[in-house]
Each structure stands twice: as C-alpha cells, then as structure tokens.
Amino acid sequence: MVWVKVVFAIALCGVLFTANGLVTADQGDCELPPKLAEEIAQYQPIVDSIFQHIVSGEYAGKTWQSLLEFTDRFGPRLTGTKQLEDAIDYAVQEMIEEGLDNVHTEEAIVSHWQRGREWAVLVEPFQKNLPMLGLGKSVGTPPDGITAEVIAVESFEEFETFTADQVKGKIVVFAPAWTGYGATGRYRYESASIAAKKGAAAVLLRSMTPFSIGTPHTGTLRYDPDVHRIPAAAITVEDAMLLLRKFRRGDKMVIQLNMDAINLEPTVSRNTIGELEGHTFKNTSVVVVSGHMDSWDVGTGASDDAGGVFVSWKAITFLKAMGLRPRRTIRAIYWTAEEQYLEGASVYEREHAEDEKEEFNVFFESDSGTFEPTGLDFSGNRAAQCIFAEVAKLMTGYDDFTFTEGSVSSDIGNWVSRGFPGVSLRNRNENYFWYHHTEGDTIELEDPVALDKITALWAATAYVIADLSVDIPKNVIDYSYV
Amino acid sequence: MVWVKVVFAIALCGVLFTANGLVTADQGDCELPPKLAEEIAQYQPIVDSIFQHIVSGEYAGKTWQSLLEFTDRFGPRLTGTKQLEDAIDYAVQEMIEEGLDNVHTEEAIVSHWQRGREWAVLVEPFQKNLPMLGLGKSVGTPPDGITAEVIAVESFEEFETFTADQVKGKIVVFAPAWTGYGATGRYRYESASIAAKKGAAAVLLRSMTPFSIGTPHTGTLRYDPDVHRIPAAAITVEDAMLLLRKFRRGDKMVIQLNMDAINLEPTVSRNTIGELEGHTFKNTSVVVVSGHMDSWDVGTGASDDAGGVFVSWKAITFLKAMGLRPRRTIRAIYWTAEEQYLEGASVYEREHAEDEKEEFNVFFESDSGTFEPTGLDFSGNRAAQCIFAEVAKLMTGYDDFTFTEGSVSSDIGNWVSRGFPGVSLRNRNENYFWYHHTEGDTIELEDPVALDKITALWAATAYVIADLSVDIPKNVIDYSYV
C-alpha cells in the first residue's frame, strides 16, 4: 500500500486543479505516470472481448432474460414481504449454481410497513375518486377513514401563512411544482410532520414526477420524532393541481381518506452477496458492484432496482464464464431495504466499517434506471479521477460513452462519504421519474440491448479496476499528499 | 332547393372520380361553377377577421379559460350523476347570459351505471395489487368478491382453444396487443360475453392504449342478451402482459376481484342546445357544431369531450359577439350519454329525423381530442366535397391546415349514415389514447393556443357554410344526379 501512495504522490504533480476544484475525466488534464497509462492501455483487447461477448456474443440478451424471469417470478419486493425473501433465496441459489464465489447473505434488521387497502375520494363539492398510494412508513387512518375539509398549498412557505386554527382537523394537500427529485423530494419526506405540527388530520401530496397519466407515485416519508403521526399519501399531479386551483378559488372541498397502512415490528432481511474472487487479493481492496433487491409494492421494481441488481450480478457471472479472474475480488452486493432509508446498506457499512480501509477499493452502484447507457459518473479525489479517466478511454469506443465526475449516492453514498471512490451508471433516464415508484415500473422499461451494453460496461470497468497493479486512491490516503 | 340541385348537377361534371371513388379536397380536381368559387373567395376577409379575433384578439385564451372553469367546477360527468346534470344546467345558464338563441335542453332516457368501490389483487403465486377500472355497464361481483384461478389469452382465437371445462369458474384475462382503437376495441365490447359463454366467472382486459404508466382505461362493454352477465374490468397493460406471460409459463395464478358496480334504472338526461340563429333560415338547413357533455367518471373528461363542447360553444359565442350572423342557423349541441353508446344522440336523431331533409345541412363534431389542430376531415358526396374544398382554401393560410376526406363518426355518425355531410376536427392526437378514459384526461392535456385555433377554425368554417347561397348537397339529393 505504501507503494501506491508514492505513485500517486507523483501522479498528483500532473493534475490540474480546475476552478471548481474538480478534474473531469474528459478534459484530458491528467498526467499519469507513463507506465501506469501503458499498463491500462494493455487492457484494450480484454475490454473488447468483454464487450463482444456480452453485447453481440453468447451472452447477448441474457441480462434482460434473467431480469424478466426474476420480475415475473417474484413481482414487487417490498421490504418485509415473503416475496422479497424468496427473491433473495433465489438469487443465492442461482449464484451458487453459476459457480460464483462466497455466495451468502448478511442479515439486517429492517422496517416492516404494510400498505393494506386504501382509497381517497373527493366527496364535496363533487364526487371524484382520487387515485392514491400511501407513503411508506405512513400510519393508517381509523377504520372508518378520515373525512375532512381540505386546505391546499403549493409550498411550505405558503403553508406557513395558515394558522394552527385554520389547519386543525383538515386534510392538507401539498402540490409543489416538480423541480427535480432532490428539491421536490423534501415534500414527500417532510409534509406529514410539518402539517401535523399545526394539527392537520392527514396529508395528500402531489406525486413526485414531471409527467403523469393519472399515476400516483409512492415513496417513503419521515416522521419527526416529536410530532403526532398522521396518515400521508401521494395523489396524482392532475388531482393535486385540481384541488389547489379549487382551494384558491375558495371552493369548499371535503375528502374521505381510508388507509389500512400499518407499521409492524422490524423484521429480518438480508443483503445478498456473490463474488468473483480475486486471484491475488481476496478480502482486501474489493471492488463492489451493486444494486438493490427490494422495491416498492407497485409495478415489479424492474427499473428500481432489479436492473441494477442484474447488471451487477451478470457482470461477474459473464466475467467468470469468460475465464477472467482479476487480481482483486469483484463483489456483487444486492442491498435490501434501500427504499426504507438504505437500511440494508447501513447495516452492511456498520459491520464492515472497521476494516474499511483495507477491505474496499471502489464502489459501483446502478440505481437511476438501466435505460440506454451513456457512460459512467465517477466520484473520487483527483488522483483517482485521473486513473479512472485513463480506464475510461478503453470504453469510449463503444456508443460514445462519456465518463465524467458526477455525484453518486443511494446505497453507496455512505462509502463515498468515507472517502471511497464511487461509480454510478449514467443512462438515458430522462423519463425515469415518469415511472419511479409507480405501477409502471415494470419490465416494459427494460431493453435487452441497453442492458447488454450496461452489463458490458460494468463488467469491463470493474474488471480493469480490479486487476490493475495499483489501487484506486481513496481520499483518506490521498489527502495526506495534496 | 331545386336551384341547388341544378348547380350541383353541373358541378359534378367537373369532378374526377379517383380510384377509390373519393375526391380529396387537396387534390384540386374539382371544378365548381365559377360564380360559387367567386362567392366563396369573398369570405376571405371575414375568415381572417374571425381568426384574428379568436387567435390573437380579444377572445384569445378564452376557450381554454372557460374549459378550465367548467372542468374544475363539475369534475367528471358520468351519465346518471348529479354533476353531469349540474354541468348541463350551467351551460344553459351561461349560454342564456351570453345571449345565444333558443337555448334549451331536450330530454333523453339514458343508462345509469354506478362504479362503486372496486379492486383486484393477484393473491397467488405472489401478492400484487392490480390497478383496475370496471367497464361501463359491467355488473358487480358478489359482496365478498370473486376469488378464482386465472386463464390468460392474447386473442379470441386463442380463447377458442380452451374448453368450457377449462374456463368454468375462472377469471379470464384478455391481453390483446394494441392495434388501434377500432380493432382492439372489440375486446372491450365483447370479451365478457365471449368468456361467459364458457362459464367464466369474470373478465379482466388489457387496457386499450399504446402506452401506459400503470394506468387502467375504462369504457363500456356490451353484453349479449342471451348470456349470463359476468363482471369485467380493465387492468393495466403491464399487469395484463405479466399475467399472460406467467400463464403461458404454466404458473398457477389466483386473483381476487371485488366490484360494487351496479346498473340502476335508466334515468333522464338532456342534450343541450344553443344557437346562433340564421337571419334567413332558422329551422331549415341548420349547421350543427357539437361535442359531448358526458364523460367517464375518471379524470375530468377535459379531452373527452369537454374540449369538443367548448370549441363548439365558443365558436357561436364569438361569432355572435363579432356581430356575424349567417343566413342559416348554427346550432351548438352538447350530446349527453355519448359514452353509453351515443344514447343522447340517438334520441335526438329519432326526434328530429322526420324533418331531417329540411332541418339539417352539415354536422360538425369534435370528439377525438382538441390538441394542436391540423385541419378538418370532411365526409360527404363528391359535390359536397368540392364545395368544402373551396371553403377550406380560405383557411389554409393558417398553420398549414389541410382538409381531406376522412371518416367522421361518434355522435354524428347516424346523420352521416343518413347521407348528411359531416366534419370532424383533425388534430395532433397521436397520444390521445394514452389518456383516453383514464384519470389522466384532465385540463393538463389542453393548450390555450391550440384551443383558440380550433375554435377559430370551427367558427370560420361553420360560418361560411352557414352563410353560403347554396346548401351543401346531401347524398339523398345528390345521388339522383350522378
């Protein structure tokens, strides 16, 4: 490991520091030690072979086929359900049959929320069903439901203009304009608590999406520990805007909301692990490729995130089948309970953090759709980015992939925060949030050719990184040299 | 009227008969009597003025604004509901206030179906909610629902391969590929009866749409009089395909279906009428502009068909406000119970058919969306098409409108079958069936500028036709001269 540090002390001399402090891989402003650049270039035939086998050879179409069989067989995989655990058992069994190494699961205590039957109806001034999905972790209503007058606002700022007297006992509709998942997502997390503080009876939230065909989008909320927990559900964009307009016109509206939702005692689920064991390093400097196994209980979670699971899984399956075993272990992890605040990944991190500096090298995760790939986003320090950029050159001949510094998060966010390099798939996911957490997240979103390309990109990049003579530098090491 | 006949006996001499027997207006193969062509050309300044006032002048945006207020105020307008009748009362009141002529309603006995609460769940081999909408006129299930094994087929032909023994007591899923509303629509109408003949317990139908985000599409079915009536509902494309794939793999599936749907006694609704009365002919040679007032009980029926109602309504409102009163009456009719097999239009036809030859001239209807307009489809005999083509020339300067022979149907289909010329809006409705009969049929589909253009096109075309010195020839008259 000392050797690695020296190499990068040298490498860093050639790194240009751009205005925002980041070096992007496609700016060509890195100067790697020539021997390392030469070493990386020598992987071109292997990368070509990986792409050939997966995209047009004997593995073509197999990622999609496996994903189809899986989602058809287990359906949606909500944390706490038998079908999630059945899916995990199946993955273990299949990976063993494929001859992958160290196949096992690691337990995690996870939330256990059940939706139950639910509905919402506008009963005054006219009758209209309001298609809805209760938010994850929401409490239910009393058995006879809640029938209450409506207050509708566009923002938390607008809600502040209402007094507790005005809000008490009302159903509050939050209809924030979509400005992206990060910014608008606050409303899903916080609306119930903010409304409860003023005595609201329940919350209905405009679904988090830029486009709708009367489709509600679920997702989890967060209750502040010190507030009364009130039921909260997502309604369609169309209905939220209707209710907002009517409220602003002064129309008195009454909604009946019925939700059987219940939070049961936490239960046991499992992170699922299979490896392509390294021939030199087994349990140190591991390259993790990952996606999450759980989904919401709508659609079949094909895109969120069975796709991420299968490109990670099949990447090591196909590498193994090709007889390619790198120096370092490539570990596929299928996280559980991602949709419940990354509960599976958090347990994994806690249990592996002690050895973190030695155990891990780079974390890959795909959890933003597996549409047509356009490249990879890489997060890491400047030295790491320079190596990554050089590795990326091996891949740029395929489909005009680009490789840039970008944010990675979700289940690997914890590790990135700890200074580990992270890699996320970039793909044509402009419409991802049309389907996200809806009944429309199904195999129909997945394309066999796109999945082949992603699996190839995943396999080739992970292989080269796992086989290099050097580790990808972490911040914890690297910063001491800057 | 004799004069008119003579004119067209002459006009027809110049008509070319194309291979399919149709003359399309944009082929330029008509030779109208020069005086008639000259007369039509003289309307150009009036047409320009109508477009100017509606598209960029004082009426710009008003069609959309009225449509918004209407759909926000009354919501969905299912036949048999108070909100449909309230919407009719409102239209009458508003039209009176606008000073339109002969504002009144004409009663029609109509079907009265209520959806009630409904749900479907796949309970084996895994648990999954199946978003659904019962089909109009469907009977409900027993109070405890129907829990039964599943048979899934793609077509009636495939269903024929199953014996009554195999079908008895099962829930049959029909998952026909979308090949257009006409071809695929058969399944919505006929599946329940076809499955019932073999003893099925219920039918679930793939929704009629080329695109889905987990969205079910309702619509009416037809029960054969001699079969046992079984419940029928539409499920999403995604779920239908999932069930079909699983069935074909041999997976045993069980679905629980609960529908409170009920067919009540027929009730009274009303066709709604307002006129811009002709200064020369009041009750003869009327030009009808129309759309339908009722909708399904999902979304707010903005596109199907409040849009059609409002472009028809506002066309005469704005003509009147501009002081333009044509020779013949332009009658706006907002049909009731279109979604229940054109019940309102059928009653209207029966009650007006006796005088039909004298009473009516041309029927306009907009019921295929009110997206960006691209022109008009015209249905009529060759002589009628030649006049229409000449009138259309007045409009072609706007937005590259084109005017072609096309099919018109829905509420005016009966009159077209009787030999009357018909006009339908052509518009960029490529995505119309994404939203059709769903919770997504709302004001979000409607664009103020597009609506202005349609209202202008509707007003200008109807005005010129209503003001010409000649009637548009009907087949009943015209065929005697061919």
Task: Explain this structure.
Two copies of one chain form a homodimer. The first copy, chain A, is of the alpha/beta class. Chain A contains 17 helices and 16 strands. The first copy, chain A, has helices spanning 2-13, 34-41, 44-56, 62-74, 82-97, 156-160, 164-167, 181-196, 237-249, 302-321, 343-352, 356-359, 382-393, 413-417, 432-435, 448-467, 475-478, and strands spanning 101-114, 118-124, 128-129, 132-134, 146-153, 171-174, 202-206, 232-235, 254-259, 262-276, 286-292, 330-335, 360-365, 373-379, 402-405, 422-427. In chain A, strands 1-10-12-11-13-16-14-15 form an eight-stranded mixed beta sheet. In chain A, helix 3 (44-56) packs antiparallel against helix 16. The longest helix of chain A has 20 residues, at 302-321. Mean pLDDT of chain A is 91; it is low at 1-27 and 477-482. Chains A and B meet through helix 4, strand 3 and helix 9 of A and helix 4, strand 3 and helix 9 of B.
Q: What's the helix and strand layout?
A:
2 copies of one chain form a homodimer.
Chain A: H1 2-13, H2 34-41, H3 44-56, H4 62-74, H5 82-97, E1 101-114, E2 118-124, E3 128-129, E4 132-134, E5 146-153, H6 156-160, H7 164-167, E6 171-174, H8 181-196, E7 202-206, E8 232-235, H9 237-249, E9 254-259, E10 262-276, E11 286-292, H10 302-321, E12 330-335, H11 343-352, H12 356-359, E13 360-365, E14 373-379, H13 382-393, E15 402-405, H14 413-417, E16 422-427, H15 432-435, H16 448-467, H17 475-478
Parallel strand pairs in A: 5-6, 6-7, 7-8, 11-12, 11-13, 13-16, 14-15
Antiparallel strand pairs in A: 1-10, 2-3, 2-9, 4-8, 5-9, 10-12, 14-16
Helix pairs in contact in A: 2-13, 3-16, 4-10, 4-16, 10-16
